[in-house]
Write a sequence for this structure.
């Protein structure tokens, strides 16, 4: 039988028929919105409650008190340790991602306050190479853990990732134990972490820090499988359930503490901070 | 004038010669091999040579974890089941004596014949397998037994039930548990080190790799079909991913290379076991004097810094 690797998932959210609809067209109900309409509703479809992807800066805006976010490790950039070349050089892909997203990497970290309570934020951006985790994402997450620990504030990690970054080969796999060790150090220092899983959180990110929070929640409809549906289908030749790997069955199977709609997310995070924030 | 290939070889030689020798023999064997290569002024392992390693790592006659258990572990008591739901035959765990000390052994296990292969799910672990491994880790911590982990997995099983039972979380928690232990942990990749499925049991103080093993973030086939959109490009993918032991050593992903008998471990299981046993023992002897807290601190620091990016603003 064919052996497929399972920890690298799609670099893009699955499209049912491979076609790419307009980003502001709801894939669930087909409604179409202007940017400002979607933004006003936290990028949730007003008609059917479908949660559109949220870019990292927008997510931070949605969660943090205005003006409170101070970004850390802004200048950290990936290099190309293996001279990786698939159909194009990795360096070219990185440069393109930076230009198209305006971000240095697929994760943004920094200190913020949410409803007046301090926390460290680590927010992933799926638009940057599928939110894949390479050495810089691993390093930024570890730095966020250390920063949270030093300041004695909780860490809130919002993930959206296709898994490990293939272009960094085995070094991207090493980001799994790296981030896991960072979480363990955080916990040993009395720290705490909330995982918020956004669509999709799969592969190596799910199989490391995104599964280790004190509390772990997901947005509705989030794909949170270790192996992607296409891989599972091709290996097992099984017909997959329609909601395969989504947050809802994961909640039923006991892998999530709650499914939190985006509208309620800020209130939920701030409740977490009131409990775990050392009475600050 | 030195060719580019020669320069590359010299560079790799100088990198290797700076590395800490473990027990002295394995790395120097690798050095010798490289020096011979340099003398012939051959190129860096070509795509074809890397592919040869991939095929050797998957050879059907290659010794599996239980073949090594049989040859290296005395008084073996195999532990079955995760005490929750099932016994995953793709992961073997047990206790026994290794060169005079009690140890816990965790290994991925492929099957030898078709029936056995199906029973072992082609070596692809389910979450129950990782929970079984975690049970063995707890036992090891409780009694202060060191852990030997033999890694040989194409990848964690990508199945519907595996997902329903929490594959990703199980792999994360298995790593977290290894990061918490106060006992010596030695892992060796003895065949395929397939991605998350492999790292789940490879967060160790010393990570060894057999000469013809591979350690990858994705199988060459998977990489080819995703990055090249053509599974037939697997050799090209393997060359790009550099999954062989020498490259892993250079990248700092492993600590040393375990030699195999001439031609590969599949040709002489006894000799392969002897060589592996010597390496595992040397690694354990180096770790055993270190206090538990310090072991754990160093283990985390090591994984914190593998392949770390320099804070270079561009």
């Amino acid at each position: 039988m064919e052996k497929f690797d399972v920890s690298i998932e799609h670099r893009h959210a699955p499209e049912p028929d491979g076609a790419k609809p307009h980003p502001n067209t709801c894939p669930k109900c087909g409604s179409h919105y202007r940017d400002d309409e979607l933004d006003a509703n936290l990028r949730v479809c007003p008609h059917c409650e479908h949660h559109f992807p949220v870019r990292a800066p927008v997510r931070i805006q949605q969660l943090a008190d205005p003006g409170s976010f101070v970004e850390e490790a802004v200048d950290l950039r990936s290099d190309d340790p293996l001279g990786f070349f698939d159909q194009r050089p990795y360096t070219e892909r990185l440069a393109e991602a930076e230009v198209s997203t305006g971000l240095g990497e697929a994760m943004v970290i920094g200190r913020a306050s949410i409803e007046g309570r301090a926390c460290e934020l680590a927010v992933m951006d799926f638009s940057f190479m599928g939110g894949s985790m390479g050495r810089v994402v691993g390093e930024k997450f570890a730095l966020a853990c250390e920063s949270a620990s030093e300041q004695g504030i909780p860490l809130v990690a919002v993930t959206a990732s296709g898994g490990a970054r293939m272009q960094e080969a085995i070094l991207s796999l090493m980001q799994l134990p790296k981030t896991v060790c960072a979480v363990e150090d955080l916990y040993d220092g009395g720290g705490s972490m909330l995982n918020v899983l956004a669509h999709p959180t799969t592969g190596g990110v799910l199989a490391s820090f995104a599964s280790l929070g004190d509390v772990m929640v997901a947005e509705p409809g989030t794909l949170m499988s270790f192996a992607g549906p296409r891989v599972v289908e091709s290996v097992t030749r099984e017909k997959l359930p329609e909601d395969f790997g989504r947050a809802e069955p994961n909640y039923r199977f006991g892998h999530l503490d709650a499914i939190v709609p985006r509208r309620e997310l800020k209130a939920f995070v701030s409740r977490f901070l009131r409990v775990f924030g050392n009475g600050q | 004038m030195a060719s580019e290939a020669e320069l590359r070889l010299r560079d790799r030689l100088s990198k290797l010669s700076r590395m800490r020798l473990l027990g002295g023999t394995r790395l120097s064997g690798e050095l010798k091999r490289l020096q011979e290569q340099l003398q012939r002024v051959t190129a860096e392992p070509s795509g074809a040579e890397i592919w040869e390693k991939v095929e050797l790592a998957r050879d059907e006659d290659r010794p599996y974890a239980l073949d090594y258990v049989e040859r290296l572990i005395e008084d073996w008591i195999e532990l079955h089941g995760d005490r929750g739901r099932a016994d995953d035959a793709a992961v073997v765990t047990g206790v026994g004596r290794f060169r005079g000390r009690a140890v816990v052994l965790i290994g991925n296990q492929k099957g030898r014949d078709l029936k056995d292969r199906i029973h072992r799910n082609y070596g692809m672990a389910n979450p129950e397998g990782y929970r079984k491994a975690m049970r063995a880790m707890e036992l090891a911590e409780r009694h202060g037994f060191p852990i030997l982990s033999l890694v040989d997995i194409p990848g964690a099983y990508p199945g519907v039930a595996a997902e329903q039972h929490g594959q990703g979380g199980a792999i994360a928690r298995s790593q977290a548990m290894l990061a918490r232990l106060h006992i010596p942990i030695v892992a060796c990749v003895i065949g395929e080190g397939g991605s998350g499925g492999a790292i789940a049991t490879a967060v160790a103080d010393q990570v060894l790799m057999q000469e013809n093993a591979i350690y990858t973030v994705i199988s060459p086939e998977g990489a080819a079909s995703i990055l090249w959109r053509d599974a037939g490009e697997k050799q090209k993918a393997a060359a790009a991913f550099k999954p062989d032991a020498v490259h892993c050593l250079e990248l700092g992903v492993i600590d040393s290379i375990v030699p195999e008998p001439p031609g590969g471990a599949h040709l002489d299981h006894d000799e392969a076991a002897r060589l592996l046993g010597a390496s595992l023992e040397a690694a354990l002897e180096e770790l055993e004097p270190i206090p538990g807290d310090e072991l754990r601190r160093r283990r985390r620091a090591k994984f914190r810094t593998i392949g770390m990016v320099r804070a270079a603003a561009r």
